[in-house]
Amino acid sequence: MARRRVDPYWDFYINTPPADPANLLRDALRNAPEGHVFPTKADLHTPEVTTTHVKEMARYLGADLVGVTRLADDDTGHPFAIVCAVRADDDPRQARGIGGQIPVQNGLFVTFVLSAWIRELGFRATAAPSLDGTRLDGDWLAAAAELGTLDRTGKLLTAEFGTRVHIADVIRTDLPLAPA
Questions:
Q1: pLDDT tens figures, 87-117
Q2: Residue 157's domain spans which residues?
Q3: Residue 152 in domain
Q4: Quick one: 159 exposed, middle or buried, by C-beta within 10 A (0-12, 13-18, 19+)?
Q5: Which of 41, 96, 135, 169 has the fewest CB atoms within 10 Å, i.e. the most exposed one?
């Protein structure tokens, strides 16, 4: 913490938005086309084993926490949500500079590649910041996926990182998984 007070560039780096938002990886990934679902579904193990594989892939890609929960309210036929979280030193909702947006970019990379991998297995996968503006936002789904609990303000509180975590875009999928 003492380093932040001494470093004159810290506040600028963390809190000042970049001059050209078009150069942000965040927008490029969110606006990229999803790609097609492979026409032949892969032969999978049990949902429990498939869930383990999905979690291992997400961690390999850079997620610090990964959980799966069932979606009861999804009207598009996606019965499961995969929730990935990355450690965030600064809350991206408050730190608009590139320093605060690094966790957002890291989370988007994880969900973009993980969604593409699921589609290559022959299953649908769509990543979105929240589920159609409903109460099923990232923090609520992360708590449902047992990544932590919600504090009194509705923010995810984890055992590993406290509230210093960013919930990446939620992946809705029809890949047969086991909530865990």
A1: 998 888 777 777 778 898 899 999 999 999 9
A2: 2-16+45-173
A3: yes
A4: exposed
A5: 135
